[in-house]
Specification:
The chain is built from 14 helices and 18 strands. With about 450 residues, it is of the alpha/beta class. The protein folds into 2 domains: about 250 residues, 3-Layer(aba) Sandwich (Aldehyde Dehydrogenase, Chain A, domain 1); about 180 residues, 3-Layer(aba) Sandwich (Aldehyde Dehydrogenase, Chain A, domain 2). Helix 3 runs antiparallel to helix 6. One of its GO terms (molecular function) is oxidoreductase activity, acting on the aldehyde or oxo group of donors, NAD or NADP as acceptor.
Length: about 450
């Protein structure tokens, strides 16, 4: 094996946590070949047994939640509270889809001269390409339904954050999943990722990452008419109307954008506030931001940790030049680590890059709007359409604005976007296809129609 390696760095201390060997194209081809062989037997495992194995995998993950969470704190700088949720989410998604093999129903369609049946057939080897911001959940959203539907999986974690995915692959074997059914292959995007996209025996790609790389992945998949799900960037709006519970909207706005240090595709990084309550909202927002606890992410009290890398720090810093209109900001530790304080920009030119581009850091712009139409128009500006929030006490308005905003995941009087039992994905250039929920399974199958003649 042609080994090159990668030093995994703890973003809170800048210390090296581990050194990981990176796979090359030959390793990728070998992994795909093994996964293809494993597919022949995995697809034939009886539905109840496949479900049982996935439930056992979930139980083993559950028994290792604390270990996985601590590993993610070291590797990604996530707060321990978040990391526990993330490991628990892998368990929950596995449990949710463990019921699927026995419920993967086809249909019997009335036709003349015979019986018509449909089957949802697994695709084969599924390639999963994961970003660094939520290494565990994003992996689980793809591999759990893919395995449940009878596919085998080769997963490439992000270079920066391979450790929890590698551990999950070990736990899968411990739970009794057969060899090569679920393979984790650390490597570079331009090498392993690209090879998975190009490889003729990889029948589907699930890609989560930037819109720019996602477009290339989609083009690569087009060459082979390869199925593809894309979960891409976002620039979501948190829309606060004058009739809302302003205290609640302001108190929860910081975690809606600063959670995971803003490195969240659903981050509500634009707060649009009705002009008549704009000043009042900022007054309420300030203590919530300055009180946001940015500290050693292994502490139970931490609400935010560091950014993932020096490169990401530089990128975020570029959106907050020395003359940026900073209204107020929180604090961050000194010393080693890629720390960036929660930062609120206001008033800010609505055309400024900080308002229009995905920053992927703890920076939020607060922009006033006039009325409902204005709010919807502003929320829909730009190429993204992933998530967003609407704060109002008027039910009719909540529904009108929810229908008006072009985004896949909206919440009213709440900022939560993700539930494993409901569909998740983007409008416009935020993505293609949906993960999670009752229907995601079908994106890992092709429908087959079989007609059986009954005429003599
Ligand atoms: P990225 O696009 O740089 O990388 C994502 C993954 O793609 C990594 O594993 C990388 O190695 C791989 N990759 C890079 N080049 C490739 C190539 N040519 N072929 C195949 N794979 C390649 O993204 P990132 O910086 O790791 O993650 C941040 C981005 O992900 C943000 O834009 C964020 O919004 C997005 N994201 C979206 C969702 C969602 O569900 N919509 C969730 C999380 C993150």
């Amino acid at each position: 094996m042609n080994i090159t390696s990668y030093d995994v760095v703890n973003p809170a201390t800048e210390e090296i946590v581990d050194t990981v060997a990176l796979a090359d194209v030959a390793d990728t081809d070998a992994a795909v070949a093994r996964a293809r062989r494993a597919f022949q037997s995995w697809r034939k495992v009886a539905p109840a047994d496949r479900g049982r194995l996935l439930r056992r995998f979930a139980e083993v993950v559950d028994a290792h939640v604390e270990e996985l969470a601590r590993l993610e704190v070291r590797n990604a700088g996530h707060t321990i509270g978040n990391a526990r949720w993330e490991a628990g989410n892998v368990r929950d998604v596995l449990t949710y889809y463990s019921a699927a093999p026995e419920r993967l129903f086809g249909r019997q369609i009335p036709v003349a001269g015979g019986v018509d049946l449909t089957f949802h057939e697994p695709l084969g080897v599924v390639g999963v390409i994961v970003p660094w911001n939520f290494p565990m959940p994003i992996a689980g959203w793809a591999f759990a339904p893919a395995l449940a539907a009878g596919n085998t999986v080769v997963l490439k974690p992000a270079e920066l954050t391979p450790l929890t995915a590698m551990r999950l692959a070990q736990l899968a074997l411990e739970a009794g999943l057969p060899e090569d059914v679920f393979t984790v292959l650390p490597g570079k995007g331009s090498v392993v990722g690209q090879r998975l996209v190009e490889h003729p025996d990889v029948r589907k790609i699930v890609f989560t990452g930037s819109t720019q790389v996602g477009k290339g992945v989609m083009a690569g998949c087009a060459d082979r008419v390869k199925r593809v799900t894309l979960e891409l960037g976002g620039k979501s709006a948190n829309v606060v109307f004058a009739d809302a519970d302003l205290e609640k909207a302001a108190a929860s706005a910081p975690s809606a954008v600063f959670d995971n240090a803003g490195q969240d595709c659903c981050a509500r990084s634009r707060i649009l506030v009705q002009r008549s309550v704009y000043d009042r909202f900022l007054e309420l927002l300030e203590p919530a931001v300055t009180g946001f606890r940015v500290e050693d992410p292994s502490l139970d009290t931490a609400q935010m940790g560091p950014l993932i890398s020096r490169g990401q720090w530089d990128r975020v810093r570029a959106y907050v030049p020395d003359d940026a209109p900073v209204a107020f900001r929180g604090s961050a530790p000194d010393g080693p680590g890629f720390w960036f304080p929660p930062t609120v920009l206001a008033p800010v030119d609505p055309k400024a890059p900080a308002v229009t581009e995905e920053i992927f850091g703890p920076v939020v712009a607060v922009v006033p709007f006039a009325d409902e139409d204005d709010a919807v128009r502003m929320a829909n500006e730009g190429e993204y359409g992933l998530s967003g929030s609407i704060w109002t006490r008027d039910l009719g308005r909540a529904l009108r604005v929810s229908r008006g905003i072009e985004a896949g995941n909206l919440s009213v009087n709440s900022n939560s976007s993700v539930r494993y039992s409901t569909p998740f994905g983007g409008f416009k250039q935020s993505g293609l296809g949906r993960e999670l929920g009752p229907d995601a399974l079908h994106s890992f199958t092709d429908e087959k129609n079989v007609f059986i003649a009954t005429e003599e």
